[in-house]
Specification:
about 240 residues; alpha/beta; Rossmann fold; six-stranded mixed β-sheet; 10 helices; about 40% helix; binds adenosine-5'-triphosphate
Length: about 240
Amino acid sequence: MLLEVEGLCVNYGHIEAIRDISFGVPEGTVTTLIGANGAGKTTTLKTISGLRKVRAGAVRFEGRDITTIAPYDRVKLGISQSPEGRRCFVGMTVRENLQMGAFTRKDRKSQAYRDDIDRVLALFPRLAERIDQVAGTMSGGEQQMLAMGRALMSRPRLLLLDEPSMGLAPKLIAQIFSIVTEINQQGTTVLLVEQNAMQALKRSHDAHILETGSIVRSGRGADLAGDPAVKAAYLGGDL
Ligand code: ATP
């Protein structure tokens, strides 16, 4: 397992956002968390990237306990997040946003760094066209691509993607999902959080269903996507 989460409990004050969650993300996979609004998906990702403290439980990366280490040190270890709502630096250009994604790297003058910029621009040609455009003037879909590209610039071993399809038109959603598959095929392990459950499950190796802070089902993505009970309960029929 690249990432293991064990017995994780996270609170906001008295609210138990997640309760005793355990799961693993095998290296090389796309693993997906699905669930309704408020199920605890974002909290789980934030806890893995170190933005929320745990009340109990552990987060392990490559077998190492990282539960208490700072978020920027987790980025250095190889964990990077594309947050819900994109959170691009809206006053900065596309190029500057990508540079910010590489902030923790010491090799910013190297060929490896230039290769990574090229890789991101090849994945997202739209960003190449807009390299000097200010991020705040771009469309939602373009900002989503930028948030993902920025996260890739730290060269993550594990990419955390929080609702990359949110608010996008169906054609763009399909494009974003196929780019997620491509990123994974290039060797990056992905932990994906999605409300667009059916499309996400179909593209995932493993998946876990969260309900009010607990995991209620786990399985292969394709199996869960085809399970009538899961469809009826979580996928709203033919989502
Ligand atoms: P969504 O898809 O709506 O983002 P989610 O599955 O990602 O939902 P979380 O955002 O992790 O769910 O929220 C889990 C629970 O924690 C919810 O009950 C939510 O109201 C609560 N919560 C989240 N953020 C905060 C906060 N900053 N303060 C208080 N409660 C919070």
